[in-house]
Amino acid sequence: MSKSAAGTAENPGKNVAAKSGLNKAILDQGWREFRPQLDYKTAWKGGMLFAVPPQYTSQTCPGCGHVSADNRQSQAVFACVECGYENNADVVGAINVKERGHRLLACGDGALRLSMKQELAEVSQLSS
Ligand SMILES: [Zn+2]
Predict the structure, then answer these.
(1) Residue 54 domain-assigned (yes or no)
(2) Which of 40, 49, 64, 104 could form a Cys-Cys staple with 83, CB 3.0–4.6 A?
(3) Does the pLDDT at position 83 exceed 80?
(4) How far does residue 106's CA lie from ligand 1's centre (Å)?
């Protein structure tokens, strides 16, 4: 997020000063402290925080579980090539993150890792 926009001598970047200011503002926010604070405040209010692996959440169909990059027609549109399920891609990602959180709560870390392994195996079978 805070990558330099300076570019190279042959190909200089645009709006370097503005990007530099944005970088300073981003780095001043202390993002590293965000996660522990979120964990602390959530527990303080009686909630629970689960960090789930985000891989393939926007490529996995919540209807049938099919994982494919082809499910993403565009940045905003998700359409499953297997069962025809359609929704906004961000909504699909949120559904999958929520589902992984529920799996983590119900079955623990081991079950989530096992299901992620199966999803990754499906993806590597499709790409080979
Ligand atoms: Zn599907």
Answers:
(1) no
(2) 64
(3) yes
(4) 24
